[in-house]
Write a structure and sequence with these properties.
about 300 residues, 7-stranded antiparallel beta sheet, mainly beta, single chain, 8-stranded antiparallel beta sheet
């Protein structure tokens, strides 16, 4: 069920006998859940083996499940999006469905099956749900997408730093043991109060709050210390995609603590893409998760170094 580095991460975190409901196919309720979503977060590996991540959007029904082991995304792919361009048959892939209206989320991991210009098929090998902790509830409403050409940045600019500083939500893609039944590509949600990501130049410091103890992301980062991060600007419909090398701090010093944090990790950002006005929806009326409200943020007296 868990690959060797997920088990190693659980041990490093001090967890004993972690178990979870990870299925080889999608339960019926998960298939219905995906079919009703207007967006889907997806990750894969590019030709160099680095994780890349993206978000697909479409009207309800643009995601279909013809059977319990196939998920089909009917949406045009952007050739200038490194993750969408990398979704080629045989590549490992992970997908996360998250409903911001009720904090429900389900994940699938597998490989890319058939593709064409307007469709990507996921052959599901792992299917599982996650708890609603740290998911901020939002009202989403339609807004016209007016995609601009991708911006490839050499460093985090003012707009990118503002997006990160104001974020209460982001998504992280990672991968490990992709040629084994227990490994693959994974994309996961992270949430916190605005300010829960500390910025120092091109390095981001991210707390790891109490969760389901699967350690999917950190287990992957132990094996392959590389991650892709996706930030959504819910006001403007922008997508910020970062990539970088990671390092986990398992036992923080006493001063580098905050409520809810058990450990933290850093990302040294190496690649940045920004897609302005890319999403056909926006978010408003944020309701913070009770779990989020019990956590803290970085300040000068508890910064991570």
């Amino acid at each position: 069920m868990f690959h060797p580095d997920e088990l190693r991460a659980q041990a490093l975190a001090g967890f004993d006998a972690v178990s979870g409901a990870i299925y080889p196919a999608m339960p019926e309720q998960h298939r219905e859940f995906f079919a009703n979503l207007p967006y889907l977060f997806v990750a894969t590996l590019d030709e160099t083996g680095w994780p890349v991540a993206t978000v697909f959007s479409g009207p309800a029904g643009f995601i279909r499940s013809p059977d319990a082991t196939h998920l089909r995304i009917s949406s045009p792919r952007r050739s200038d999006d490194p993750a969408q361009a990398a979704l080629q048959p045989g590549r490992p892939v992970g997908a996360l469905g998250l409903d911001f209206s009720n904090r429900r989320r389900n994940r699938v991991n597998g490989i890319v099956g058939r593709t064409d210009k307007n469709r990507v098929e996921i052959v599901v090998r792992q299917s599982f749900g996650n708890c609603p902790q740290y998911i901020q509830r939002r009202e989403l409403y339609p807004a016209p997408a007016s995609p601009l050409p991708v911006e490839r940045l050499g460093a985090l600019d003012k707009d990118a730093r503002t997006t990160i500083a104001q974020a209460d939500t982001f998504f992280v893609a990672s991968a490990a043991h992709v040629n084994t039944a227990s490994g693959g590509v994974d994309i996961s949600h992270r949430g916190g109060n605005p300010g829960f990501i500390y910025q120092d130049g091109e390095t981001l410091w991210i707390p790891d709050f109490r969760g389901n103890r699967y350690m999917n992301t950190l287990g992957n980062l132990l094996a392959q210390p590389r991650a892709a991060l996706v930030f959504i600007d819910f006001t403007r419909g922008d997508v910020l995609h970062l990539r970088g090398e990671t390092h986990i701090i398992w036992h923080p010093e006493k001063r580098a603590t905050m409520p809810g944090m058990e450990r933290y990790w850093r990302v040294a950002v190496t690649d940045i893409w920004r897609f302005r006005q890319a999403l056909p929806w926006r978010g408003r009326n944020v309701e913070f998760s009770p779990a989020t409200l019990r956590t803290g943020i970085w300040r000068e007296d508890n910064r991570p170094y």
